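Session log. Operator J.P. requested a structure for one protein chain; no other inputs attached. Running the standard single-chain path with token output.
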Amino acid sequence: MTPYQRLMKTVKKEPVDRPPLICPGGMMTMAVKDVMQLLNVYWPSAHEDPCLMAQLTRGMADLAGIENLGVPFCMTVEAEGMGAGVDLGHQTREPHVIRYPMKNMADMDRLSPLDTGIGRAAVCCDAIRILKQAETDLPILANLPGPASLATSLVDPMRYYRSVHRDKKAIHELTRFCTDQVIRFGDAMIDAGAEIICIADPSATGDLLGPTAFSEFVLPYLNRMTRHFQEVKNVPVIVHICGKIKKTGTLIKEMDAQVISVDSVVGITSLHGLAPDKVTMGNISTYTLELGTPEKVEKAGRSCLRNGVDILAPACGISPLTPLANLKCLSNLVATFNTSPDTKEKNI
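Structure written below.
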């Protein structure tokens, strides 16, 4: 079974030989310095050159055993294209917003619609075309920010969160606009060859918003994006939510996404209870991945598998300083894992 077949079957809840091991990219940054050095391909150059971007994500698969290709490597492409100032970082720091185009919630006219044919949006699409033309057996993932996370890259997050209670009309207006731009970018990457969409919305946690605001300002827009990609473009969707999802109550099971990815603070068994019909993904601590020994990383991965995770993955964005050995031990773990009933006990 190829990695592409394995992931697609898992997403559809069809039988597979073992769980996939993926690290999408985007907020869930999937490139590490060890691989950059081996390839002689580095950030920030790989953020702006489609050939280097494609080479780096392919290198992560070849050298670390990650079973997917994913671009971009950050969550700033859309914000930059809409008017935000972005520092592209360096080898061990991903791009980050340094200037918001909006001074306050009334500054919607300062935002530009995203043009996917120019800038880093075009770079991502070109990188996907390069990967697709290589006829790889690895699934190509396109990474997108959720609407709340994009909004908090366009205006100071504190202004955004205060407006959740003080200016609901402005929040809805901004979120609708952000949703439109993210859908536009997702469509462009799918048209270029992306086969799965991964939406990460770290600014939309239950810890920050609570269930009422999550229900009004996050869930409808995430579901609108999800339905578009799944029904109009016929592409599966993964949604990653940070924080303690118990604080959103039963709202997680109301998400239309086929796959739910969660933070390390959420137990996989808890996720099964909150969203019993969803494919589960996660949730190895990124701190353990960066700072732990391969033995500790393998133990964490085995715990996720023992608790029934469908797709093994980091719990969030991995640090570029994550040792290559720690990623390779996970690749070795899933390679020897078998889901058949007569061997499962031996695996765990």
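Operator note: Residues 198 and 238 are 5 Å apart (CA to CA).
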